[in-house]
């Protein structure tokens, strides 16, 4: 089953209550709360408040979008991230696979990220929380091949991944990446940008997204499809993209 939600970082300039209002107005089912502004790492009171307001609006906390970098725990203690996610009642924490491109990182750096990933996955699993890598440039999960390599090296059941299309790639390479990661896939970030990085309406990517969602459904597991970033940070553009996403999910 595919469920529709939004990443709160889409509206960093709005307070949590307004993000909740927009998500409810859009008819979405859940919110991934970001750890940078809306639910800061370590602010447990804020996490409890946001969790309560989310539930009161009939929405679900799909996940906690943290800025923890595996291999760099000295910069942000994972214990602080995990404690915040627990108060938020988030079943999933999104983390980042280091801060180097996969093809530039040394074997020693890879091992550092692998070992830290195993450690934090063990901590999360004790609390019933799943960790997921952000699928993103400037990390060890910047391609489908490298992300799979890392997941296989970590080999922990609590360590999974997100996926999102790489804007610089065409349809077929993006589909290959998605298929490589399908066994570990938890959630998907949905947006449509031009190859030059210009934000566009989600409906302009309908042909590609229909193919992407066909692959995601093959897992026969539950996945959140989370809107992330919209044209000009506009609430109106967001509501339009939310309608588009829900039409696609309903059609499937």
> End-to-end distance, in Å?
10 Å
Number of helix segments? 8
Task: Write down the secondary-structure element order.
Answer: EHEHEHEHEHEHEHEH
Write down the overall mean pLDDT. Answer: 97
Quick structural summary:
The protein is of the alpha/beta class. It has helices at residues 16-25, 44-56, 78-88, 107-126, 144-154, 171-181, 206-217, 235-251; strands spanning 2-7, 30-34, 60-69, 92-96, 130-133, 159-163, 185-190, 223-227.
Model description:
By secondary structure, this protein is of the alpha/beta class. The chain contains 8 helices and 8 strands; from the N terminus they run E-H-E-H-E-H-E-H-E-H-E-H-E-H-E-H. The model has no long low-confidence stretch (mean pLDDT 97).
Please write out the topology.
Elements: E1 2-7, H1 16-25, E2 30-34, H2 44-56, E3 60-69, H3 78-88, E4 92-96, H4 107-126, E5 130-133, H5 144-154, E6 159-163, H6 171-181, E7 185-190, H7 206-217, E8 223-227, H8 235-251
Parallel strand pairs: 1-2, 1-8, 2-3, 3-4, 4-5, 5-6, 6-7, 7-8
Helix pairs in contact: 2-3, 4-5, 5-6, 6-7
Name some characteristics of this structure.
eight-stranded parallel barrel; TIM Barrel; 8 helices; alpha/beta; 252 residues
């Amino acid at each position: 089953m595919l469920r529709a939600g939004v990443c709160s970082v889409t509206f960093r300039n709005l307070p949590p209550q307004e993000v909740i209002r927009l998500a409810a107005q859009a008819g979405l089912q859940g919110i991934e709360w970001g750890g940078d502004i809306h639910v800061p790492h370590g602010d447990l009171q804020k996490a409890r408040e946001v969790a309560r307001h989310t539930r009161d609006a009939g929405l679900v906390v799909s996940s906690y979008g943290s800025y923890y970098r595996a291999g760099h725990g000295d910069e942000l203690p994972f214990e602080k991230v995990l404690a915040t996610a627990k108060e938020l009642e988030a079943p999933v924490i999104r983390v980042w696979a280091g801060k180097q491109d996969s093809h530039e990182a040394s074997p020693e750096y890879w091992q550092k990220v692998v070992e830290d990933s195993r450690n934090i996955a063990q901590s999360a699993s004790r609390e019933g929380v799943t960790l997921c890598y952000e699928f993103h440039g400037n990390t060890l999960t910047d391609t489908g091949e490298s992300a799979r390599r890392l997941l296989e090296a970590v080999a922990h059941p609590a360590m999974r991944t997100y996926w999102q299309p790489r804007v610089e790639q065409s349809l077929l390479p993006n589909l290959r990446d998605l298929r490589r990661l399908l066994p570990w896939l938890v959630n998907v970030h949905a947006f449509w940008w031009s190859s030059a990085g210009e934000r566009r309406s989600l409906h302009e990517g309908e042909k590609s997204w229909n193919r992407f969602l066909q692959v995601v459904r093959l897992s026969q597991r539950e996945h959140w499809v989370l809107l992330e970033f919209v044209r000009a940070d506009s609430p109106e553009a967001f509501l339009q993209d939310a309608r588009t996403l829900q039409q696609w999910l309903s059609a499937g």
